[in-house]
Amino acid sequence: MKQGLSLRVSQHLALTPQLQQSIRLLQLSTLELSQEVDQMLDENPFLELSEDRAEREDYGLSQADTPVSEGDRDSEFASAAPLPDMGSSTVSSTSSDEDNAPLGGDEGIDWDGDGSTEMAPDDGEWGVDAKARANNLNADDEKDATELARSQESLQAFLHRQALGLRLCAEDSAALRFLIESLNDDGYLEEPLEDLARTLNPRDLEQLDELVHHFTVALRLLHSLEPVGVGARNLGECLQLQLRAQLRELEDEGGDPDVFEATEVALRICQQPMELLAKRDIKRLVQLGVGSDALVREAIALIARLEPKPGRRFIDVERNIVVPDVLVLQVPNTNKTAQPKFRVMLNPDVMPRLKVHDIYANVLRNHRGGKDSAGHAALQQRLQEARWFIKNIQQRFDTILRVSTAIVDRQKSFFTHGELAMRPLVLREIADELGLHESTISRVTTAKYMATPFGTFELKYFFGSGLGTESGGNASSTAVRALIKQFIGAESAKKPLSDNQISEMLKEQGIECARRTVAKYREGLKIAPASLRKAL
Fold first, then answer.
1. What class does CATH assign to 466-533?
2. Would you call 218 exposed, middle or buried from its count of C-beta atoms within 10 A (0-12, 13-18, 19+)?
C-alpha cells in the first residue's frame, strides 16, 4: 500500500455554543423556558432578575420587518439540520472524512463570542423586556388560577374523607385505603384484586386468600361511597352501580313506576356486552329479551345521562391551563368602513426580565490582574455566558413576534370572521416572507400559543393544507372542518347527515372533498358517525 499526503478543501458551517443555545431555546415551550431560566439563575451568579421595566414597550416590534443579514441567514439554514449534541461544535455542509471536533464538557465551551457583536463594557444594557413569573394580585389572601387549581381536592382525598366516617377494623380500613390509592384518574380500579394482593408479597396461599377477602369487603365499601360508580372495574359495572343507586332511590321515595321499569331495563342492558349499547343495536337487545322496543329506547336515553367517568370532576384542572405567548388585540378604528386592524404583542407575563448583575460584573472588570488568572478567566466566561443567554432569549421572543405578525397578516380574515374564513397556509410561505428557514418556523410554531378574539390557539393551528374549489382556488382544511362542524350542528337529530351527504353539500359550496376526507375530518373533530348521532 502506497502512503501519501493530500489536501482537501471543504466548507464547514460552525455551530457555536451560542447558536446551539439559540436554536434550543427557540423550540422550548413557555414552561420549559421558565425551567431553563430558573436553572440558569441558580448556576450563573452573574445573572439576576430585574425589577425595572425596560424602556422598549413592544419588545422588538419595531424590528419585526428588519431584513435578515447574510450571517443570520446562514445560521438559519444551519438550524435546518438536526440539532447536534453539545459534544459536537460543527456541522459539515459537504462530505468529509474528518470527524467533527468535540466540545467536551462545560470547560470546552467558549463564550467569548464569534466576533460579530461587540460587547459593551456597560452591562446595564442587557435588560430584557419582561417579567418572568409576576403575579398581579397584591392581596395575601388572593390566589391566581394555578394556585386555585392546586388547592382543588383530589378524588383520593375526597374518598379518604368519607372513609373516616366508617367504623372499620384495622385490616378493612387499610384495605380500603389501599384500593382508594389504586384508582386511576377516572375513578376505575384497573387491576384485579388478586394482583393487588400479590403486590403485598403474601407469605403463602392462605395469606393471599385472606388479603383478597379483605379487598373484596373493601371494594363493596368503596362502591357505597360518592361519587356513585367509583371503584368499578369496567364501564358496564360503573353504569350498573349508578342504576342500582337510582333504583334504591326510587324504591325509597316511591317514584314513577314507568321510570322504575325503564331503569330496570337499563340495568339489564348494561349487563349485556357493551358493543350492543355502543352501536345502539335496539333490534338485537329486543331479541335478547331485555325489554320492548319503546322501553329499550327509553332506557338507552336514561343511560346516556349517566356519568361514565366518576372521577372526571376531580381531575386537576392545572394541566388544562394554557398561557398564551402572543396576544392579538383589535385596534379601535374610527372609520367603520375600513378594514379592522390588529395589534400583535408578546405576553409580558411569559417573558423573563433578566439582566447581568452589575456589582459582580464591575468587580470582575476592575480586578483583571492578579495571581489567580485561571479563576478570573473562568468567571469571565460565566459573565459572557450570562450575556449570551439574555441575548438568545431576546432573539427567541423577537422571532416569535415576527412569525406571529406574519401569520396575522396572512390570516386577517380569520381574526375578522372566524375559522370559516381561514385560508390555506404552509410553513414555506412564512419562511420565504421572513427570510428564515422552514425548520425555524416549525420550531417557533410548536408549543407556542396565541390569544385571539376567538380563543387561544397553538400557532400551528393557523397552518393547513388546501382543498381544490370549482373556481380554481384553494380552501383551507381548517375552514372545511369548521364547515363540517356547522353542517352537523344544524342537522336534524332524527335524520343526521351521512358523510356522503356532507361531501355533496361541500360540493354545492364549491369545495371538492371526498367522502373519506369528510370521515377523516369528522373523526378528527371527535364527532360520532350518523348512526350514533341519530336520536332514538
1. mainly alpha
2. buried
